[in-house]
Amino acid sequence: MPSTFELNPTFSFTLLGTFVIHMWTRPSRPAWLAVLIVAVALRSACIRLMGGLGTYYGVWWISWGAFLGLASLMVLATQIARLPARSPDRLPDFERKSYRQTFYAGAVFPLCSLLIGYTVPLTTWLRPRTYDALLLAFDGSLGFQPSFVLGRLLSDGSNAWGLTTIVYYALPLAVCVLYASHLASDRAGKPQPVPILALFLSLILVGFALYGSYPAVGPKHAFGELYPWNPPLLAQIALQPMTVPDAPRNCMPSLHLAGALAIWWNSLLWPRWGRLLAGLFLWTTIFSTLALGEHYLVDLVVAVPFTLIFQAAWTVAVPLTQPDRRVPLVVGASLTFAWFVALRYGLRLFLISPAISWSLILLSVAWCLTLEKRLNTAARARIA
User: Fold this and answer.
1) CA–CA separation, 366 vs 27, rounded Å?
2) Distance of alpha carbon 41 from alpha carbon 226, whole angstroms
3) In terms of pTM, does the model score above 0.85?
4) Residue 88, pLDDT above cutoff 70
């Protein structure tokens, strides 16, 4: 009998991020070896007890992330416990503090992922009806359906589909890489303009709260029989809430794009090759969110001012009294609120002409990118 157990790929990538954070601290060779031994043992036990790890694309190597991350946390916990409580010198206290900081840094994102996993079904129960038809109508007002068009490129189930899916899963790993790099810089005495952990935790918390105020699931889940080959005509879309069972209400705004955008904005201190990878990850995230049918173009647009709110709120290197920080905060919040209201109560305005929809998209995105650039320039000038 084949196993029905599926080791969640997003959670595996999250725990792989834990492993990256641990390795970024340059642990000793015995610690490296202990992590590898424990990871192999955990993987072997899981396969033996569960009969397998899953059947999704890339499961053989993606699943290693879960065991490497758990092994890192176990090794760190053991190192903390084995240090003597008291010592005539201060070295054990320093080591314990370092181990604890690494343990907490590595554990925070998996814990967040678990909490999110438990709250997603709650939003489905609380909001059985979604606003997917309204978002689909806005995208249709652009003259075509972006998610349907890109979805056709992956409809054959080829390796391109698998690689795109991996990019969609890998956001937690990319966040952990950014966090690890900033954590290492802090420990080296190089001040960072933005506390990365606070930025991402607050972004996730508020983002999931907004999922309840504007529930949507994405075209693949809401219009499964039509996606991606038969997008409904704009005149055929009923502008009213619709019932969509058993699908997470995690579409509006896109936290996937928000996370990738925050990584791009906060990778300016990386070397050029790192910046190129961050930019590539941003563009492939835009493609994957649409092509996999998980998001609409408009909820990606709303993610831009939404992310700007938190980028401005947590750029502590610039005083809040300075316009370079205060203006992006106000504009980001105002645009996010305006988009939510317009997409709920003013959708017929966008249906008048594609020029209206495209103009508002370009204005919102260009304005936010300009303000973020000024904010980042001011922040770098203060820490230089």
Assistant:
1) 43
2) 45
3) yes
4) no
